[in-house]
Amino acid sequence: MHMTLETDYAVRIVSCLVTAGRRMDAKSIAEETSVTLRFSLKILRKLVAGGIIKSYKGTQGGYELAREPKEISLNDVIETVEGPFYISRCLGGDYQCGHNDTSSGCSCPFREVYDQISEDVSKRLKAFTFDMLLSR
Question: Quick check: helix, strand or coil at residue 35?
C-alpha cells in the first residue's frame, strides 16, 4: 500500500506554502515543488475545495494557507485528495464481499481487523501537523 503521486505532491504543495509563509502564485509553487504546472493546478483546486488553502484572483492573486499549519494534519491533506482512508476496499460503502451478511448476524473477521487498522492509521496521520513536521 502506498500514497498516490497526487497525494505526495499535495503534501509537498502544502509544505511549500507553510515554509514560504506567504501567498504564492501557481507557477512558483510548481517550480518550488518540482510538480508540473498543470498537475499543480489540479491539486490546488482540490486543496482549495477542501478548505486547506485559499485562492486569490488578480494581479496580486495566488494561493496561501486557509488555516494555521498547526491546524492542518497529514490526514487532512490525504483525505482531501484521496477521500477517506481505508486499508481495504471492503470498508467502502458500496463493496459487498459475501462474508459480511448483517441480516443473518454474520460479520467478516477481516473487515473488523481492517477497520481497526484503518482507524489506527487515520489517528496517527491526524497527530502529525505541518507545524510539527516542518519544525524537525
Answer: coil
CB contact burial 63-99 (16+ within 10 A = b; e otherwise): bebbeebeebbbbbbbbbbeeeebbbebbeeeeeeee
Grid coordinates given for 95: 463493496
Q: By the 8 A CB rule, do 48 and 54 touch?
A: yes
CA 132 to chain centre: 16
Give the predicted TM-score (pTM) of the model.
0.83
Question: Among candidates 15, 2, 19, which has minimal Cα distance to 76?
Answer: 15
Which grid cell is 86?
481505508
- The average confidence (pLDDT) of the chain is 89
- Residues ≥6 apart with Cβ < 8 Å to 40: 9, 13, 26, 29, 30, 33
